[in-house]
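FIELD: query
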Amino acid sequence: PKQKRTIIKQQNNNNNNINLKSTMGTTTTTTSVVDQKHGLTLSFLDELRLKYPHQPTFLQAVEEMALSLVDLFQDPEQGEFYKRAFLVMTEPERIISFRVPWTDDQGQIHINRGWRVEFNSALGPYKGGLRFHPTVDDGVLKFLGFEQIFKNALTGLPLGGGKGGSDFNPKGKSNAEIMRFCQSFMTELHRYLHPSTDVPAGDIGVGGREIGYMYGTYKRLTNKHGEGVLTGKSLLFGGSPFRPEATGYGLVYMTKLAVEDKLKRSLKGMRCAVSGSGNVAQFATQKLLEFGAKVISVSDSSGVLIFENGLTEQDLEIVMDCKNQQRGRLSSIETKVSGTYIAGKSPWNVDVKYDLALPCATQNEIDLDAAQLLVKNGVLGVLEGANLPTNAQAQEHLRREGIMYIPGKASNAGGVGVSGLEMSQNAQRLTWKPEEVDQKLKDMMANIYKLMADEEGKGGTLEEGANRAGFLKVAQAMKELGQIW
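FIELD: result
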């Protein structure tokens, strides 16, 4: 049956208020939210909902995670402990907020806001990217940081979870303006970073260029070189082979494993839709071509390129030059590639047949209408390259239709995994061979898939397996550290 949540509204203090003993020991008056599928009252989350109604994306991430853990919350012996652990995990250990002043090329001063959400350090130093985008606020970063906790746990590396960034929009800015912004941003952030405390990386709007500018500022301010306080660095000053490729390659390694295990098919010849045209999309496309798959689409915020017969290696080179060197829109290369450009569309709202969907752009890009169209056209699996690109209603539809679905916290974990390997190389003052890093990435994605499959074998889906495996690892660490009991 379709998974629904029924909200029982408070009508008056005498009849319909539900006084619940909070799992943290206080009595509160809340609404009751019931998951009809599992018969579980998720009322222990109500206080969180009342506290952060202005952060819907964060609450979405929390609720979707909670729904995959209902069996743990219902456990007669450990259920209350798991609820307490989950509630503690939903609150960041600290949020750092700061002003970022910078000067444009005309000499005008602009002010942006910067944040670093240091969410959970039970397993290791805070680890997670920096995002520069006008939609960034503390709620978006809390959602990303919350997901990062469990993603990092799945890698098997000693990494906590965090996320940061700014509402700065790099689009249309000159190299000099971006450099000045990065220098100002790092001037404020650097005092909170240390290889054993917090190690940011890149995300949307933050690539190798921006990491270089920030690392240069850190080095100048601290007079220290070689410290692993940022990952995604150039190989010239402490970067790791395969770090730029890691998220996209890891996504495809996971896709190959899932297709062979669950669908009993080869990836070769499968029609794959990729959204986005940034770092993750580019290298996922590159690896899909290497494995013989047909890549049918790439996109940006202005439109989508559809390659009915499959994108070629020459097409990919043109796309990468457009995005990495020219900093242009896909519309500018429509006459140079073999695909057809459709303005104002994404791969998920054009009527094209795909075997696999790999959303690599941004959160909530696949909604219910898109999921219904994918299912109608025979999609076999959705594997996320971005963070939470499939919204709650779309996920529900995919589950109901029996579509293989693997969440980003598992399928895109290769990026942070190789960031962890970069930290190890920095600590050793060594650079490993590219083939060694690539093999470690393959092994990491295979181990994550095994964790999911093992938990799935206890009842549930691969998605629920990923969430349970990550949650249980963090909960046990917090218990042993005395943070929960």
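FIELD: remark
The mean pLDDT is 90.
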